[in-house]
Recover the amino acids of this structure.
């Protein structure tokens, strides 16, 4: 297979498919890869350069970029992540979600690092990519099918039961703002609404098969780097429980920092009886039938369940990650312990992001509790806390935009604009993205979440500090004195800035966050990633180089948002509820956020980035130092260039 | 030859490792080991290639290495190791050579 001789670890080509006219083009990845790390790093550069300011998310001129990690296709630990990025309908700005994937490895073996989807198909289609052969196939028989049915039908169509597929469900087809893209049955390119963009393009699915090779520049050095990293997993503390239960191990520790969501964040701690009733570890012990691992992963957090009792007996599904516990189960106050598996499976089938579903339904239930919403507006449904049947019915209504679901499909921010009547206070979102993150009482987590360029989100800088964390190790990583003091404002900006780089490098290389210091302080950090990337590509890349590339990427994400939105400093602040209400219960009860101190944390954060404190915008000096002079020119034209500090 | 491996999580890292042993690059299509989906029951099936066909290679048990590379990269290394031994025993029928018990590091678990 032809590929650029100088390029290692990358597959070599970027595939551009225009669904409007059927045109297929290929360009060398090398055009971008020296300056921008793979996957999301290249995606933001393409989207920034190519989307004009008049483009809107569902416009055929919007582009949807699928990226594979630069280390994907190699056995680098955790290198199984693929990304989907676009101008998103959730925030109206930068949208990017990563997903555990087999499809990404197939794409790389087929020769492609990224796929840029352009235009809109005239009728439903899916893409079948088999090495050099690329087919835009009719998908009329798949339209209306859920993601599980789509997987089965495509495997039948192509007569290969081992193919892997990424697809949208009815939520994406119906342009639900919180629609996501699902890999096979249970892994999601979550948040941001990339599934709605895919639906707007009439693109139902992508399936890939590749028979080519991924080469690394220095075989011995790369395999030695991988071996050393795998050794880290043998001695990492606390990994046993992660390997046994995955992220569903977290309940007790999250309770310990008041880090959950109960009744739409009215409380951030579960009543003890409820916590005991829903403890997911007990469910895993009861219902697990098999494991699910993704390429390279040394943890293996996935597990298949067969639910044998209760209202959802007979359900066969892959278990959800932790996120479903607070975002659906707890937020809606549901005590039935298997509800999380059922609701997660239904969301996956419908192609609906669980945070989008939980955020909108939680908001609606609180509005109903407070008499803001009435049955005449909710299709006669009584939106009582804890009613699993109503919750599942609302999930269905959202995906099909049916009745009251039409409003909820817009997400809690827009839904509260539509309803009015003081309902906005109960819409828990950042920049239009529904929150799963509890922002009270864990300040490095909160700062990373509220400043995220994709709206609320904990995978672009947020750091979770749980009881029992090794403070000494954290000090050595983050370079601050008090990393474990979650209620102290000092130092949290520095921690967040470090994690912003780690998260971005992870996403670009395709490494799952759980295999890194974000998930466990004893695992992969930037030095190991620099060594693996250097050995794989043959380009000597230091930790400082990686940090600089991540910083450059972050500045471009900011600039992208400034082209399409009016986000500024005020949008980096927590929600009114998080700013004004003390933590009502649990171990951190009584603690209340100090808005002035939070604002001071933002000052520190902007200073570290070289951004204007007043607006949060990047300055010319900062952009120029990152070789982004053209971006400074663009921002200046828009009147969105940050002012230089006078100090 | 196919074997049932109920504990397999389907990560296919073994395929990458195997192809690296044969070719010095990561090319699952050329692996002598293939992870196949099962219609029913937990885990996956492991297919081991007995004869190479030019583009792929027969399993040689990674002769010369302390442990076969696929086993080194497997989370359930004991189970995969047993499969390789069974494969070798069936293949050679009379004398089990190639994948003899070389002792493996269990620290991975």
């Amino acid at each position: 297979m032809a590929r650029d001789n100088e390029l290692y670890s990358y597959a070599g080509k970027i595939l551009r498919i225009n669904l409007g006219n059927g045109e297929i083009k290929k360009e060398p990845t090398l055009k971008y890869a020296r300056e921008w790390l793979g996957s999301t790093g290249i995606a933001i550069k393409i989207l920034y350069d190519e989307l004009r300011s008049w483009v809107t998310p569902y416009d055929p001129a919007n582009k949807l970029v699928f990226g594979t990690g630069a280390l994907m296709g190699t056995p680098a630990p955790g290198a199984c992540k693929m990304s989907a990025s676009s101008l998103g309908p959730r925030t109206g700005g930068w949208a990017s979600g990563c997903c555990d994937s087999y499809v990404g490895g197939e794409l790389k073996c087929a020769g492609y690092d990224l796929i840029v989807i352009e235009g809109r198909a005239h009728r439903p289609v899916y893409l079948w990519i088999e090495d050099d052969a690329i087919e835009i196939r009719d998908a009329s028989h798949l339209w209306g099918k859920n993601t599980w049915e789509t997987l089965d039908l495509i495997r039948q169509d192509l007569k290969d039961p081992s193919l892997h597929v990424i697809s949208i469900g009815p939520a994406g087809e119906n342009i639900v703002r919180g629609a996501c893209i699902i890999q096979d049955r249970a892994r999601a390119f979550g948040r941001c609404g990339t599934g709605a963009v895919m639906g707007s393009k009439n693109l139902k699915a992508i399936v890939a098969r590749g028979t080519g090779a991924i080469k690394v520049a220095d075989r011995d050095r790369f395999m030695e780097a991988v071996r050393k990293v795998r050794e880290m997993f043998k001695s990492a503390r606390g990994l046993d429980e992660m390997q046994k239960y995955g992220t569903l191990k977290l309940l007790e520790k999250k309770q310990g920092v008041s880090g959950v969501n109960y009744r739409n964040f009215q409380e951030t701690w579960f009543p003890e009886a409820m916590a005991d009733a829903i403890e997911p570890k007990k469910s895993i012990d009861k219902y697990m039938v098999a494991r699910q691992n993704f390429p390279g992963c040394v943890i293996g957090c996935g597990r298949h369940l067969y639910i044998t009792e209760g209202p959802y007996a007979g359900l066969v599904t892959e278990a959800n990650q932790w996120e479903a516990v607070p975002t659906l189960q707890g937020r809606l106050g549901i005590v039935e312990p298997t509800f999380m598996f059922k609701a997660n499976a239904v969301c996956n089938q419908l192609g609906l992001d669980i945070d989008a579903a939980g955020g909108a339904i939680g908001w609606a239930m609180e509005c109903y509790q407070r008499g803001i919403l009435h049955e005449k507006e909710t299709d006669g449904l009584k939106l009582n806390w804890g009613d699993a049947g109503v919750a599942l019915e609302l999930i269905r209504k959202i995906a099909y935009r049916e009745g009251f679901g039409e409003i909820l499909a817009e997400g809690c921010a827009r839904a509260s604009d539509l309803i009015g009547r003081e309902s906005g206070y109960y819409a828990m979102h950042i920049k239009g993205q529904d929150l799963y993150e509890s922002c009270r009482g864990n300040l490095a987590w909160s700062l990373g979440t509220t400043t995220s360029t994709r709206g609320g989100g904990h995978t672009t800088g947020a750091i979770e500090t749980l009881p029992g964390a090794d403070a000494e190790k954290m000090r050595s990583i983050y370079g601050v004195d008090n990393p474990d003091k979650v209620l102290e404002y000092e130092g949290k900006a520095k921690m967040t800035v470090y994690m912003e780089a780690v998260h971005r490098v992870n996403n670009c290389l395709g490494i799952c966050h759980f295999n890194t210091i974000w998930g466990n302080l004893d695992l992969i950090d930037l030095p190991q990633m620099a060594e693996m990337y250097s050995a794989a590509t043959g380009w000597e890349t230091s930790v400082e180089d990686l940090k600089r590339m991540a910083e450059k990427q972050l500045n471009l994400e900011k600039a992208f948002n400034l082209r399409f939105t009016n986000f500024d400093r005020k949008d980096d602040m927590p929600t009114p509820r998080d700013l004004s209400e003390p933590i009502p219960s649990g171990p951190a009860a009584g603690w209340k956020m100090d808005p002035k101190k939070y604002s001071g944390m933002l000052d520190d954060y902007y200073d570290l980035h070289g951004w204007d404190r007043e607006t949060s915008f990047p300055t010319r000096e900062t952009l120029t130092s990152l070789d982004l002079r053209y971006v400074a020119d663009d921002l200046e034209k828009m009147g969105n260039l940050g002012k230089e500090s006078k100090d | 030859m196919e074997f049932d491996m109920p504990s397999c999580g389907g990560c296919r890292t073994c395929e990458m490792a195997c192809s690296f042993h044969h070719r010095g690059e990561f090319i699952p299509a050329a692996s002598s080991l293939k992870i196949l989906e099962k219609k029913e029951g937990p885990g996956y099936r492991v297919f081991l290639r007995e004869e190479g066909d030019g583009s792929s290679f027969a399993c040689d048990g990674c002769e010369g290495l302390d442990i076969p590379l696929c086993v080194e990269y497997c989370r359930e290394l004991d189970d995969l190791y047993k499969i390789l031994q069974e494969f070798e025993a069936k293949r050679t029928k009379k004398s089990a050579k190639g994948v003899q018990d070389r002792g493996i590091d269990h620290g991975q678990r």
Q: What stands out?
A: DSSP finds three helices and three strands in chain B. Residues 77-92 of chain B form the longest helix (16 residues). Chain B touches chain A through 28 residues (CB under 8 Å).
